[in-house]
Input
Amino acid sequence: MADLHFLANPARFRRFSQRVLPGLGFATVLMLAFGLYMAFFVAPVDYQQGQTVRIMFLHVPSAWLSMGGYALLAGLGASLLVWRHPLAALMARAAAPVGASFAAVCLLTGSLWGRPMWGTYWVWDARLTSMLLLFFLYLGHIALSRAYDEPERGDRSAAILALVGVINLPIIKFSVDWWNTLHQPASVTRLDAPAIHNSILIPLIWMAVSLLFLFIFLVLVRTETEIDRRRLENAAVQEEEAAA
Amino acid sequence: MTPKRRRLWLLIGSLGTLGVAAALVLSALNDNLVFFYSPTQVAEKSLGPDRRFRLGGLVEAGSVQKDGQVVRFTVTDTNKTIAVVYRGILPDLFREGQGVIAEGALGSDGVFAAREVLAKHDENYMPPEVAKAIKEAGQWKEDKK
Output
C-alpha cells in the first residue's frame, strides 16, 4: 500500500488516472455487456422466484458497492483528518455521489423485488432500515461537504460524518443475524459455502466485478474533475485578491 | 508523539467509544429491533388480545385451508404453533414449509387474525432442476429434520 502514496499528490494522480482510464473504461463496457448478457439470458430461473431472481444481479452488487464505497469514504476521511492527504478530500467529493447512486439502486431494485416476492415494497426491518440510513449518510456527506464557503471546512466536516457513519456498516452486514428480519440472511458472504447454485453465483460475481470496475472508473473521472475544479476556484480567488 | 500520531490515536479512540456506545444502544433496543416474534416467544411474552404484533415462522405442512378469500393456516417454529386466519391476497412465495410473517393480533379464541401476510424468502438460490434433484435424493432441508 505504501507504493500508492505517490497518488496523494493531485498532479501525479492525474497523470496516473489518465494513463489508466481509457483501458479501464473499455474493460468496464465489455465486462458489463457480457455480465448483463449472462444475467438476462444465460443464468437459469430460480426454483421459487422464477424470473424475478434476475433483479439480484443488480441488487446485490449495488449493495456491496454502496457499502464498500462508504468504507472508502471513511478511509479517505481518516487520511484527510490524520495525514492531511491533499487528494483524499477531492476523492471523497468524487466518490460520495457514486456510492449514493449505488445505494439508491440497491434500495429501488430491492423494493421492486420485494413487492412480488414478499408481498410488500417496503418494511421497517433492521436490514432495510440500516440500508436506508446508509443512503441518508451519503446524502449528508454530499450536503455537508458543500455547506461552507471555504471548501476545506466542508471537506473536514464531511470526513467526520463519514467516520461516524462507518458504525452503520457492520450493522447492515449483521442485521440479518442479530435480529430476525424480513430480509433473508447472507447467501454469498458467509463462513460456509455459498447458498447459491454456481449457475446463478457465477453471473452474480461477474456482475459484481463489472460494477466494481464501473465504480472505480466513475470515481477516477470524477476525482480528475474535482482536482480541476479546486484549481480553478483557487485561481479565481487569487485573481480576485490580486485585483483588490 | 508527532501530531499525526496524536490525531491517529484520537481517531481510533473516538471510533472505539462510538462503537461501544452504538453496541450498548442496540442491545438495549434489542426487543424493538426484532421484526417479528416466533410462536414460542409469543407464548413466553403472553401477548394477549388487542396487542398488535408480527408473528413469524414456517407455514406448517398440510395446514393451509382456503375458503374463498379466507385462508386458514398454522405457523410453527417446530416447538410451538399458532393458528392464523387471513382474508386477502397472499404473496407469490407463500406455500407450505415456507417462512411467513403475519401482522395482526390474537383473538380471544387464540387464533391469530392477520391483517397482512408477507412471505419470507430464504437464502437459497438454485435452478428448478437442481431443486428437483436435491428433493429426489432426499437431501432437502425439510426432509432432513
Summary: Chain B has two domains: 1-33, 34-119. The CA atoms of residues 59 and 75 of chain B lie 5 Å apart.
